[in-house]
Amino acid sequence: MNVRTQSRVRSRVIVVGNGMVGSRFVDDLLQRDGDSFEITVLGAEEYEPYNRVLLSDVVAGRADVATITLPSQQAAHTAVRRGAAVVGIDRDARCVMTDDGSLHPYDALVLATGSAARVPDVPGLAPLPGGVHALRTLDDAREIVAASMNARSAVVVGGGVLGVEAALGLARRGVPVTLVHGADALMERQLDDGAGGVLAGELAGLGVTCRTGARPSQVLVGDEDGRVSGVRLDGRTNAPGEIVDADLVVLACGTVPETQIAAQAGLAVERGVVVGHDLSTDDPQIFAIGDCAQPPEGSQGLVAEGWDQSRRLAQHLVSLVVRQEPTEAPEARTRSTTGPPRTRPPPRRRGSTCASRAPRAGRAWRRASVRRWSRAPPVTRASPPAERTSSRSRARSRW
Ligand SMILES: Cc1cc2nc3c(=O)[nH]c(=O)nc-3n(C[C@H](O)[C@H](O)[C@H](O)COP(=O)(O)OP(=O)(O)OC[C@H]3O[C@@H](n4cnc5c(N)ncnc54)[C@H](O)[C@@H]3O)c2cc1C
């Protein structure tokens, strides 16, 4: 180990979310500069990162958990904590808190919290009764598979790509499925009416009954067991009050970006966490990528977009690294007038979480943060806030 490495002060990067984009971001950063960062990944799920796109194959029995697991990061200065949900961000102290109460200071915070399944506002769905599932996580897929073992019949709500895949997966397991879709044709974003009709015909041959032009008006729950027993339909194509029996219901009604911790921290949030072209939020120390982000160009909720953001952000953070000489005194660096203006931490707010729980450490982190980013140019935005807002209508998810 050389002297420079021993004395290097690494910038602390916290990544919140160990999903398809968060895990890719760590790879991207390590590939570009494995030595300048101390990376901590905090992921709410208990699992290694996995290919979420293949969850419908798990439901269909075409893939198992082992085959969808993504390579995990094992590198020096990189720690991955699974089953660690971030519950708060203290922007003044620059640290996050996880659900076990532990605190994690950062110089740069990357939010990659993804999105959650949208639960439609239908009577009977709050709280979700037994037998009703979304398909977003590996746990969801496992529960659907387990429920399909004893299910007599299933309803899938939502006839987009994910709904069609889920319906096919259940039919493949021998469960009779009714696919309920509000529009006149399946997958109307991808197919015209004629093609949607052909698809419905093909699905019928595989054990999926399609009910287009119909929406669920109520989810019926058994009095004794609290489990779903059927779905009442409302629409042009069904008899008034018609009920489709089901002891398994899968919701495939789109997604909602996971923005809770960002909103609680006072960051700008619209549909997603608002970011500029450089993927920074309105706090220059905090970035957002993947499904949770709302970039100026809008978002389709596709993984390729998140991977592109991951690559760009890794490049950006590497470009901000402070190249410190080991012999240089901190005072000399911070007094320098030749470099670009250094970033200053915002004034501490009263009652900041990390400060109140660990005041001494909090002060140390703030001093360290000033040192580490002291020569980094301030993060600039390529677009004014007004331009970001105008992208809102395009920021719809396909899933
Ligand atoms: C069944 C299915 C099929 C799909 N098919 C396609 C497809 O064919 N093509 C395509 O492009 N896309 C598809 N998608 C969408 C694709 O999976 C997403 O675009 C992609 O997973 C986004 O990656 P992400 O890392 O932003 O979010 P995610 O992969 O959702 O990861 C986010 C992670 O953050 C964690 N997290 C959230 N909040 C916190 C917190 N507070 N603290 C710690 N961790 C937190 C979550 O637990 C999760 O592990 C599909 C999605 C599903 C569910």
From TrEMBL:
It comes from the Bacteria. InterPro entries: FAD-bd_OxRdtase, FAD/NAD-bd_sf, FAD/NAD-binding_dom. Residues 363-374 have a biased composition (Basic residues). Gene3D superfamilies: FAD/NAD(P)-binding domain. Residues 322-399 are annotated as: Disordered. Residues 352-362 have a biased composition (Low complexity). It holds the Pfam family Pyr_redox_2. Residues 12-297 form the FAD/NAD(P)-binding domain. This is FAD/NAD(P)-binding domain-containing protein.
